[in-house]
Amino acid sequence: xxxxxxxxxxxxxxxxxxxxxxxxxxxxxxxxxxxxxxxxxxxxxxxxxxxxxxxxxxxxxxxxxxxxxxxxxxxxxxxxxxxxxxxxxxxxxxxxxxxxxxxxxxxxxxxxxxxxxxxxxxxxxxxxxxxxxxxxxxxxxxxxxxxxxxxxxxxxxxxxxxxxxxxxxxxxxxxxxxxxxxxxxxxxxxxxxxxxxxxxxxxxxxxxxxxxxxxxxxxxxxxxxxxxxxxxxxxxxxxxxxxxxxxxxxxxxxxxxxxxxxxxxxxxxxxxxxxxxxxxxxxxxxxxxxxxxxxxxxxxxxxxxxxxxxxxxxxxxxxxxxxxxxxxxxxxxxxxxxxxxxxxxxxxxxxxxxxxxxxxxxxxxxxxxxxxxxxxxxxxxxxxxxxxxxxxxxxxxxxxxxxxxxxxxxxxxxxxxxxxxxxxxxxxxxxxxxxxxxxxxxxxxxxxxxxxxxxxxxxxxxxxxxxxxxxxxxxxxxxxxxxxxxxxxxxxxxxxxxxxxxxxxxxxxxxxxxxxxxxxxxxxxxxxxxxxxxxxxxxxxxxxxxxxxxxxxxxxxxxxxxxxxxxxxxxxxxxxxxxxxxxxxxxxxx
Length: 590
Ligand SMILES: Nc1ncnc2c1ncn2[C@@H]1O[C@H](COP(=O)(O)OP(=O)(O)O)[C@@H](O)[C@H]1O
Ligand SMILES: [Mg+2]
Prior knowledge:
Layout: H1 2-16, H2 21-56, H3 63-112, H4 115-120, H5 123-166, H6 168-215, H7 217-222, H8 226-279, H9 285-328, E1 349-357, E2 363-372, E3 377-382, H10 388-395, E4 403-408, E5 411-412, H11 418-423, E6 425-428, H12 439-443, H13 452-461, H14 465-470, H15 488-502, E7 506-510, H16 518-532, E8 536-540, E9 552-557, E10 560-565, H17 567-573, H18 576-589
Parallel strand pairs: 3-8, 3-9, 6-7, 7-8
Antiparallel strand pairs: 1-2, 1-4, 4-5, 9-10
Bound molecules: adenosine-5'-diphosphate (ADP) and magnesium ion (MG).
């Protein structure tokens, strides 16, 4: 538990201790109100006891004084209730602001993590973890700062006051019950947290699985496997249900039940002892009621709020675990402190003895060296899986090379700021994904300041005009999640339009027209050639007819360059390229 408090203070407190002075003032005010509430909680039972004493010794005081004391008691109670509400209002805005900042920083952090993290992470599980963290964050804070710490302070002060007023034996008993109860709670909650972790895992697994199943909607229909999906889903839901039932049973019986038994037995023994004293005249009725009320107030508040809050903290800690683990992952790609800004002009690209592996086990690129002179076009060809797209990813610095270096105008790309590097490169990726919004928003993505005329021109160059004109909603057509409502060729042309708007200094066309028919391909090819004239261009292609015009063609096989030269030179070598060319020509003629 102390670890939980430490984590909250160290890692989460900065999110609520904002630079904004109004937020700080609210937080400090709520702490002040907590202190007032503690003071009132200690005074009220005393006032109650005092009132009883005055009533029972009616002869000793005037009636108006007694009524005044009773009124004062009621007033104190009302003030205490109002303070609690005011404290909650104050802290509410601060905590929600904290949730906002925590979520935003997690969002930014996720975007800074490597592509590999995103390829392996389960989005459904991440969203669920964020959702849980958004609920756990304010709960933990409330619990620690408004309940557990104040309760501990309150009980210690109450025990001292109690002891001072009625004898230190009573104070000691109250404190002893508190320590016993806390000890049990810490143990029980720790024990129950294992079941909560099991429940969280089962829930995340189910959510991630459902998200994956929905993503594969089409495939499931192709193989008529809805029944299988239904059964798998049911199995996971059953596991979740079992984990949830186990979690609630342990919480209610083990944590709350055990705690209530401790308080119940203590109360029984304490009341019996008090009753015994009252019966034998060692206590007045007033004292009996006052001492009993005092004891009851603090022990019942332990049951009402303390146990619940201790459980909330432990659960909150488990709920935050996944998010904390994500925060602990360091981004692989780090910008240098004084990173250079890439100037927008056709750069000269060099790959110097580049080797690369995604997982440090299998080499994907092995000692690759080539260059793309400024403003020239180089084509990369090779069988599938030979590492062509990987070269594109390295240029974007999604990964750093394992060995060697990539130079832009003689400077290592690790010296540039990521933003300026990525701004300078335009890619038509092999797999295009779209945002779940309109076609227009997708085309101008990343260029919020472009005019509709620019968009219109890009659409014209990407041969999308006719397609958009045929759509009933035109530019405002929604493309569906990940662009699933568009065909492969349409998505590819959206990516082409995007690159026409971007106008970078280095172009990468990764099988840019592979999803298009031959006619559209030729038309777009012409536009792409015009676009990239005078700019450094890397074309990755499968159909050799699309790269014959390149200044240099590089043939990649199993991560190694096996041939390079111009189209005619390569044909002259009579090697891999020549045989591929031969093959594709015959296929084409057939
Ligand atoms: N994130 C990844 N983690 C591990 N291996 C990967 C990853 N991405 C691609 N690979 C592997 O790297 C090799 C080259 O991939 P890629 O560059 O996409 O090939 P291609 O030449 O077809 O574009 C493939 O064998 C692929 O399985
Ligand atoms: Mg590829």
